[in-house]
Design goal:
Blueprint lengths: L11 H32 L2 H12 L1 H13 L4 H25 L5 H28 L5 H29 L1 H20 L16 H4 L1 H8 L1 H17 L5 H8 L3 H25 L6 H21 L3 H29 L5 H30 L1 H22 L1 H4 L13
Length: about 400
């Protein structure tokens, strides 16, 4: 059985980290379903859902740089464990809120803000743990598996959360507590290779923004991160899936569920493929090609009036998006010196969070101005244009070779 596993999962430390990521992803998605249902039930106002999302996002840009500094100065294993413990506290608080009767929004706003703090503080350290514990020859497959764990949570977590919530609301939060405890235990069992960076000079402004400066100076990395930012910000239109399900495809709530799941199914397939057989071709041209394909898939989705074609287009978008994420994550993990991993990952996490949150807002705003179909098609076409223009703006990215040939850049 062990020989059938992807090579990275045969590595004890990464297997523990992957287990923690899987448990955390499942628990988080189960919580999202339950919280969304309870919040909407209070006033039946969609704005309340947006406010909870905003409460989760606000701590990210505020805490990102200090969190990156923290991840590069103390044990990343310890920082990650503390962040997950905060999620345990959140799930336990939600048990109490539910037992007392969820009749107001403010407790959920408080929970959302605390979750945002945990995410902002914990994610740079957690993401930096992978290159810290995994040998270089297994790193690309390990990063693909890390994404697979997240996609399993996205696919299975909402379904599990909905089923359990329908039977007993408190049980969802109790199950999340148990999963988070498993995640903490797996993190604490790690034996990281790298020691804490006790010889770092006292923190100052230059140290705080060192991650930002490294990304700006490393044009290949800046091109990869910014390309992904624009892809999600301008090209990803899954936030408009309810409009397509209700008024364009006329498939109802079941069809909406299928539309929301299709990108994750494609991403999961790509993640499994990359975990078993990492990308063998030049990464720069491959990244530009998959981003252009992502844009083309969005154009097809926008124009489609047939559910199977729409599902196929979304699955393709998820498949190529996973390849894009794997190239970006591997590039960051390899070219970033170990002592900067936390700060660089913190900056990237701001890009990811901003693109996800602002991308949904951009899709809705443009759709309200020019129409839903036109907005999706325009976004996909713009992404294809950006992929074509990026080699001129970032020639170092277009010249990037195979991922296994990358080496750390000078800090």
């Amino acid at each position: 059985m062990r020989k059938r596993l992807p090579p990275a999962l045969g590595h004890r430390e990464f297997a523990l980290l992957w287990t923690s990521s899987l448990a955390t992803g499942l628990a988080s998605q189960m919580l999202a379903v339950a919280i969304g249902w309870q919040v909407y039930a209070v006033h039946r106002n969609p704005l309340d859902l947006g406010l909870v999302g905003l409460a989760e996002f606000v701590p990210l840009p505020i805490l990102a740089l200090p969190a990156g500094q923290l991840a590069d100065r103390v044990s990343r294993r310890l920082v990650s464990a503390v962040a997950i413990v905060i999620h345990v506290v959140i799930a336990a608080a939600l048990v109490a809120i539910t037992l007392r009767g969820a009749h107001a929004i403010w407790p959920f706003l408080g929970v959302g803000a605390l979750a945002g703090v945990a995410s902002a503080v914990g994610n740079p350290a957690l993401r930096a743990l992978t290159p810290e514990i995994v040998p270089l020859d297994l790193l690309q497959g390990a990063l693909a598996l890390r994404s697979v764990a997240g996609q399993i949570g996205v696919v299975a977590g909402p379904a599990l959360g909905g089923i359990v919530f329908a039977a007993e609301p408190v049980a969802v939060y109790a199950a999340a507590v148990a999963l988070f405890v498993v995640a903490v235990g797996a993190i604490l069992a790690l034996r990281p290779r790298a020691a804490p960076l006790a010889d770092e000079p006292p923190p100052d402004w230059d140290s705080l923004v060192a991650g930002v400066r490294f990304i700006l100076r490393t044009r290949m990395l800046l091109g990869a991160i910014s390309l992904d930012l624009f892809a999600v910000l301008l090209g990803d239109s899954i936030a408009l899936a309810p409009v397509f399900a209700r008024t364009i495809l006329n498939v109802g709530p079941i069809g909406l569920g299928a539309l929301r799941t299709a990108p994750s199914v494609g991403a999961l397939a790509a993640g499994i493929m990359l975990a078993r057989r990492p990308l063998q071709r030049r990464a720069g041209p491959a990244l530009l090609a998959v981003v252009a394909t992502f844009g083309a898939a969005m154009v097809v989705f926008g124009l489609s009036k047939w559910l199977p074609l729409s599902l196929a287009a979304l699955a393709v978008s998820g498949f190529v998006d996973m390849i894009s994420m794997n190239i970006r994550a591997t590039t960051l993990a390899v070219v970033t010196p170990m002592h900067l991993q936390g700060r660089v990952n913190a900056v990237e996490w701001v890009f990811i969070g901003a693109s996800n949150e602002l991308g949904a807002f951009e899709s809705g705003a443009v759709a309200s101005l020019i129409g839903t179909v036109q907005a999706v098609v325009l976004g996909g076409a713009v992404m294809m244009g950006i992929a074509g223009a990026w080699p001129r703006l970032f020639p170092a990215l277009s010249r990037m070779g195979r991922l296994d040939e990358l080496r750390p850049a000078q800090a």
